[in-house]
Amino acid sequence: MKRLALYILILSGLAYAPVERADVGKLAPVEAVLLDSDGTSVMLSTDMGEYGKGGSVDEALENMKECSKAYVYLDTARYLLVTDSATHHIKDITKHLKQSVKVCIAPFDTDLKAAAKYLRTHSGQPTLCQWKKGAAVPAEEALKNFKKSQNNA
């Protein structure tokens, strides 16, 4: 009987929990995120065409959310592509992404939609979780081959 009362109390508490509501039609489910830096600014872009810039990853993400017509939903991201100049910002973006996101080095001019499609069939990148355990961020051979295939097309 006490358990039942406890369950009812917990469920009723959830009904009053503050929840940020979002229109499903305005969600921008992201599959690939590109993290870039020019030394003073951090730039984030997604395969959905969203872009943000700021002095830190948090500021760039906030700028992206402010400038976007849709609600940028990073929980759906599967790939984090990082330029050579932004590898030191990976720790800052990990709190915004799932630990299962695959990480690889990419040039800043990568077509993110095409890269995400390509990476779906070319696995082998470490996840953020593996990277945190000390794995090096690979200069992804698959992305080099992807660039070659784009140039030949």
Task: Describe this protein's structure.
- It is a single chain.
- This protein is α/β, with parallel strands linked by helices.
- It has six helices and seven strands, in the order H-E-E-E-E-H-E-E-H-E-H-H-H.
- The strands form two sheets. The chain has a five-stranded mixed beta sheet.
- A hairpin with a 4-residue loop joins strand 2 and strand 3 (42-46).
- It is globular, with a radius of gyration of 19 Å.
- The mean pLDDT is 80.
What does the secondary structure layout of this molecule look like, with pairings?
Layout: H1 2-15, E1 27-29, E2 32-37, E3 42-46, E4 51-54, H2 57-67, E5 71-73, E6 79-82, H3 90-93, E7 102-105, H4 112-121, H5 128-132, H6 141-152
Parallel strand pairs: 1-5, 2-6, 6-7
Antiparallel strand pairs: 2-3, 3-4
